[in-house]
Amino acid sequence: MTSSPLSSTMLRAAGLLGLFVVVSVSILVAVNNFTQPKIVEVERQVMLNTLNQVMPTQYYNNNLIEDITWITAPEALGTHRPMPIYRARVDGEPAGLVIETIAPDGYSGNIHILVGVFADGRIAGVRVLSHRETPGLGDKIELRKDNWILSFDGRELTAANAGSWALRRDRGDFEQFTGATITPRAVVNAVKNTLAYVNQEGARLYE
């Protein structure tokens, strides 16, 4: 039995379509294999640059982004999810920690924060990673909007000064924002809780 011209045409079309799909998939796989390592490297560099804002490179000589541990401490870090701690060292000795933490009580939800702490308990730096606070009010927690976040630099938490870790309207040392007190209060409390955790756990966090 011979095939009709229509059947032959359909078979050829199906074959060409199949070939096109195979070639297209092969190209996509090749492009992905070529670009994926570059994307990963860019993401890694962006993260390292962020880490270096709260733990400058002159204070460590290890591979900070690779020296990492994960902890679950919901009371201290504001979430039940494991959070990363990056360990800074000088010739193998503890130099500082960079901890991701969350302020769960922001005006518009979670505020993700990066806290750098020297081995002696002083703050090396604090930066906000992400938030949904009100533009023009709560977003002053961003360094590009205001220098307020720099007011944490060099501070430490002790039994004697614990009361100063609050907004001025709450009889503490930190400025509030005009029209927005919930946001800075949430950040101050989150950083304070993180410092308290570091003080409590001490050297164990470097193990």
What report would you give on this structure?
The protein has 207 residues and is α+β, with helices and mostly antiparallel strands. It has two domains: 1-53; 55-206, no CATH class. Helices cover 36% and strands 21% of the residues. The chain has three helices and five strands. The protein has helices spanning 5-54, 74-77, 182-201; strands at 68-71, 83-90, 93-106, 109-118, 123-130. A five-stranded antiparallel beta sheet has the order 1-2-3-4-5. The longest helix is centred in the first third of the chain and has 50 residues, at 5-54. The protein starts with a helix and ends in a 6-residue tail after the last helix.
Number of domains: 2
* Mean pLDDT over the full residue set: 88
Class from secondary-structure proportions: alpha+beta
End-to-end separation: 78 Å
Series of H and E elements: HEHEEEEH
Number of E strands: 5
Helix content: 25-40%
What is the C-alpha radius of gyration, as a whole number of Å?
26 Å
Oligomer: single chain
Approximately what portion of the residues adopt beta-strand conformation?
15-25%
Shape: elongated
Pfam families: FMN_bind
InterPro entries: FMN-bd, Ion_transpt_RnfG/RsxG
GO cellular component, one term: plasma membrane
GO molecular function: electron transfer activity; FMN binding
